Amino acid sequence: MRDYDDVLFPEGYQKIKDLEALIAKLTAENKQKMAMKDQQINDLNKKIEELEKPLSKSDAKLNQ
Fold first, then answer.
1. 8-20: pLDDT as tens digits
2. Residue 9 Ramachandran class (φ > 0 left, ψ -120 to 50 alpha, else beta)
3. Is the whole model's pTM more than 0.70, yes or no?
4. Any idea where the domains of the chain sit in the sequence?
5. CA 13 to CA 25: how far, in whole Å?
């Protein structure tokens, strides 16, 4: 059965469609930002691991 909201309430229907489009856009932007943050976290974790490696080697020398 067809939904006649677009015929009966054209202004409200258009506002709903505009809001749905805005929600979709903001959701996509949020996912992109979250992916960028995840990448930054991964990069920082790799840097931390790299910085810990030399400490481990110098600690090993001190323990000998």
1. 888 888 999 999 9
2. beta
3. no
4. 5-63
5. 18
